[in-house]
From TrEMBL:
PROSITE patterns: SIGMA70_ECF (PS01063). It comes from Algoriphagus aquaeductus. This is RNA polymerase sigma factor. The keyword Transcription applies. Belongs to the sigma-70 factor family. ECF subfamily. It comes from the Bacteria. The keyword DNA-binding applies. Pfam families: Sigma70_r2, Sigma70_r4_2.
Length: 181
């Protein structure tokens, strides 16, 4: 566990500095958590809500944090679980077929001024939307967050071998989409 994590935990566990500890936790990790979620849900408002939910859930269960991983890894696990649950509920709640959901997200990518970059980046994001949620998550964690498979295993609760296979399949599907697009 990093020294920063230890300091944040000491503040949170102190009855006199608890609020300061929470602020430090948010300052330290909010941007990273937001970006992981945003890459999965695309829409800023959804990512913002899920980031807030992640920290609320973390605050409620911080006394259960044992320190076997970094706060970063623990928060990412909460964030990815919240995001995957949100995506499943959204598909079911609005009776989206997978194709309708992908069309909506692709349309958002085409018409949003939120996305930086050129057409290649837009095509990559569209290709990512075609992946199953868990493959998309693995791709983001490995390619964009540059996490090791061991860190990803801690976050997702999945074996290293399964993560490697998911990443491989995701890369192949992305390559196929980009070539055929």
């Amino acid at each position: 566990m990093k020294e920063t994590d230890q300091h944040i935990l000491e503040l949170i566990r102190s009855p006199f500095a608890r609020e300061l500890g929470y602020r430090k936790l948010i300052e330290c990790y909010q941007t990273k958590v937001y970006h992981v979620i945003r890459r999965m849900v695309i829409i800023h408002e959804d990512a913002d809500d899920l980031t807030q939910n992640t920290f609320i859930k973390a605050f409620k269960s911080l006394d259960k944090f044992e320190g076997n991983s970094s706060l970063f890894t623990w928060l990412y696990r909460i964030a990815t679980n919240e995001t995957l649950t949100f995506l499943e509920k959204k598909k079911k709640r609005y009776f989206f077929s997978l194709d309708d959901h992908q069309e909506k997200m692709e349309s958002y990518l085409d018409h949003s001024g939120q996305l930086d970059g050129d057409q290649i980046q837009v095509r990559l994001h569209k290709a990512l939307l075609k992946l199953p949620d868990k493959q998309r998550l693995v791709f983001h964690l490995k390619y964009q967050e540059e996490l090791s498979y061991e860190e990803m295993a801690q976050i997702t609760g999945t074996s290293v071998g399964a993560l490697k296979a998911s990443y491989h399949h995701a890369v192949k599907k992305i390559e196929q989409f980009v070539v055929n697009e």
